[in-house]
Amino acid sequence: MKKYLKILRKCALFHQIEDEDLIIMLNCLGAKIDVFDKKYTVMSEGKPAKYIGIVLSGSVQITQTDYYGNRSILSNIEAAEVFAEAFACAETHSIPITVIANEPCEIMFIDCSHILRTCSNHCTFHQQLIFNLMKDLADKTILFHQKLEILSKRSTREKLLTYLMFQAKKFGSDSFDIPFDRQELADYLEVDRSGLSVEIGKLRQEGMLESNRKHFELLWTVK
Amino acid sequence: MKKYLKILRKCALFHQIEDEDLIIMLNCLGAKIDVFDKKYTVMSEGKPAKYIGIVLSGSVQITQTDYYGNRSILSNIEAAEVFAEAFACAETHSIPITVIANEPCEIMFIDCSHILRTCSNHCTFHQQLIFNLMKDLADKTILFHQKLEILSKRSTREKLLTYLMFQAKKFGSDSFDIPFDRQELADYLEVDRSGLSVEIGKLRQEGMLESNRKHFELLWTVK
DNA sequence: ATCCTTTTGTTGAAATTTCAACAGACTTTT
DNA sequence: AAAAGTCTGTTGAAATTTCAACAAAAGGAT
User: Is A220's pLDDT higher than 90?
Assistant: First the structure.
């Protein structure tokens, strides 16, 4: 477990918890670690919403597929980030999402019921953990709110520009890489891939941006 | 404050907190109550994200308006429900939403910093409050997730059907009233009002549903 | 009961998105 | 280094959505 301390310290869930305490707590919570190869399913739709997932290395995609087979990508989760926490905390019976490894991954799973019901040992860090979980959920809500703002735009162009603006804000720079290829970006923005390519081409022609595959550079000033 | 106990007891934020304790806590937290007439602004975009709002009577709409003046409706908040908690808990500097009263309303405001930083009196109920807040945020995330599922549908028809399905599930019945008129429903589903009316007409003709203004009855079996 | 206002449904034209299919560029594998 | 596979950009046609404008229906006020 110790080899993961470096990344776990960066995880918002464990803010303000000392290394030694963290090790004790993870034992107490019965944390388990699994590894997954690229494209493997980390969690699948319909399964019980029991576990919170924490990405220790690699990254995963949160996806949803409807009965016509249309994939939609909800979000991309990087190392040190948490996923599926809302379903586990809300004690939903089953999760409505599928989680796929983007690359070889190590994932930590924690049974959420161990977090929600204070353990018999009365870890003193438990209250801090719940507080951190609350902060994490608030941040997730903000992120979902951003995604709603993107999807609420009516045109492919506006969806794309809104997304790029949020990314620029996130990275604090007008030059950044996105974690999606074209098809994935289309599935994230919920638009047609070819239409998206056309729109990117137009923006390039208009001098609004430069882009090469996953790299983007915004050339219009975000005041 | 006592006259609001009946509704406050129904608020998820105060689960497992006894009446007497609740009164003490609300004082401790410096809760304030304001009243608003129909269509008045309860909170406006850009203002500091300091307060959590609780609807004591009436209902409010969470809206967002872009620079072209397109209104989008994020959600409808009924009595005993909470709003703006995510922005306050995540300590965002300003809120990106505007809250409008649907009808005459009484709203309780609590400065979130009083919740996040345990007060000097060390109320014992404080930990319970934070736990409840976490649960509430998890539930909100689920709701946002549902809205994302609606907006991720590509056609007006599918957005509408997905919304109606969630409503039927929420009310546990195929017959229910929605809290929106046509224009508001269009602003919630992020589609054109006239196109929405056409789609409702088609579904009626196909025998999929019956509807009259805000009342809907689903005639296809959700297995 | 009548007038005034708001809401809903309709329609046709314009704009946009989706779909399917393909070619060229780029990667990865052998 | 060649072959195979994946990703991106293009294109034209079909389907859908948006927009604007108006009429009918419903609700409120006097």
Answer: no
Burial of B138 (0-12, 13-18, 19+ CB in 10 A): buried
- C1'-nearest nucleotide to the CA of A199: D9
Q: Tell me: do B99 and B131 sit in the same domain.
A: yes
Is A64 close to B152, i.e. CB distance below 8 A? yes
A 16-55 residues with CB < 8 A to B: none
**Total domains in the fold of chain A:** 2
The enclosing domain of B180 has a CATH number of 1.10.10.10
Its domain, for residue A200, covers 153-218
Predicted confidence (pLDDT) per residue in B203-214, tens digit: 999 999 999 999
C-beta of residue B164 within 8 angstroms of C-beta of residue B208: no
Give the whole-angstrom CA distance, residue B40 versus residue B50.
20
Segment B100-123, tens digit of pLDDT = 999 999 999 999 999 988 765 566
Q: Is residue B53 part of a domain?
A: yes
Q: Is B98 a domain residue?
A: yes
Are residues A134 and A118 part of one domain?
yes
- Does nucleic acid strand D have an atom less than 7 angstroms from the CB of B194? yes
The whole-angstrom distance between residue B15's C-alpha and the CA centroid of its chain comes to 18
- In angstroms, the CA B138 to CA B133 distance is 9
Classify residue A13: in a domain, yes or no.
yes
Look at B90 and A127 and tell me if their CB atoms are within 8 Å: no
Nearest CA in chain A to B89: A138
A156 contact residues in B (CB cutoff 8 A): none
- The residue with tokens 């224009």 is B183
CA-to-CA distance for B62 and B81, rounded, in angstroms?
A: 12
Residue A88 is part of a domain; what is its CATH number?
A: 2.60.120.10
